[in-house]
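Q&A log
Question type: sequence-to-structure
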Amino acid sequence: MPIVSWFEELGRGDVALVGGKGANLGQLVRAGLPVPPGFVVTVEGWRAFAAAAGLAENAAPLLAGLRVDDDAGTERAAVTLQELVRAARMPDAVREATVAAYRRLAEEAHEEAPPVAVRSSATAEDAARASFAGMFKSFLNVRGEDDLVRRVQDCWASLFGARALFYRLRERVAEGEQGMAVVVQRMVQSDKAGVLFTVDPASGDRDRLVIESAWGLGEVVVSGQVQPDRFVVDKRTLAILERSAGRKAFELVRDPGGGNQRRDLAPDRAAALSLTDDEVRALADLGRRDEEHEGAPQDAEFAIEGRAIYLVQTRPVTTLGKGAPGERVRRAEPLVRGLGASPGTASGVARILRSPGERERLAEGEVLVAAMTTPDWVPLMRRSAAIVTDGGGMTSHAAIVSRELGIPCI
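Response status: OK
Response body:
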């Protein structure tokens, strides 16, 4: 089996080799949709690394007996396993294949050390059953061979993150079902980016597309760091039915010295819609073509660089029909309003937390209130009756997970 495969070589049947994200990128290329070039360090590379590092023998006793409600035990196992992965040496054959593919990408880009996005692509990720949204690591603006190798190993380590272990236990994903490939893709220095759903993720309405966007890199949208702009589009006619500007106080842009930097936005730019009507319709058309090719509603990430629009990821929508059951509630005047990220009704004591480290303060069945819930909050989210946050959108990782858990979220 190859250690490296290029996107154009991949398709739906290659999940076991390149993970959900890698296989889905291959599908986008096959559909003729605009995808930045790249390759995948396959599960074969991961297996060679894991065998050389003796991970199977070391992981088994740490994972045996872990329970979904044992936060402390899961955290201890995660720290130990990730340290083992990061400390081990990548086999020469895996490193050489990875570096050779990066050099080819550099030649095609006519650049000595082109920046790339390095993303985990687990075999149980981005599947129809469970998305594992945000559970594994991604790194943007990675440059140079040594940095690339280091980040590939960091992606492998994220297979054993506490949030990923918890999610695996909850979804009953067996250890043998889980392998890790790594996507390496030319970095799009986006002026604006975001997420599009080819179905309304909250209501399940298949006649509408929902697009959320912000300035700069799309990480601020998928991680819920800002309240994004939101557009609702009629899937058949591509008419824009709704437009609403979010609170976008800052953007993420490429740091000339490497990595990413946060740049505060002037008030007028922060309040301005990040997409033009033409861009919204063009994205909606790409989303419609993506869904037609895949035969199912899709959750896709996009990036716009100048006038070029790219799809950088797609996966099946996993949350249709998973809304929380309706309840009879006493009608009263609303105290606060927000964007519905996960449908349902709930009641309970409101518990305001500043970080996941305050998990002991949250009792079962309370309403979790936080500024933002990244995937690190997942073990707390599952104990909550409902979730209320200050920021984020309905297409962010945390919103997706709340819908998969069936927990109402605003």
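Response note: Residues 92-109 form the longest helix (18 residues).
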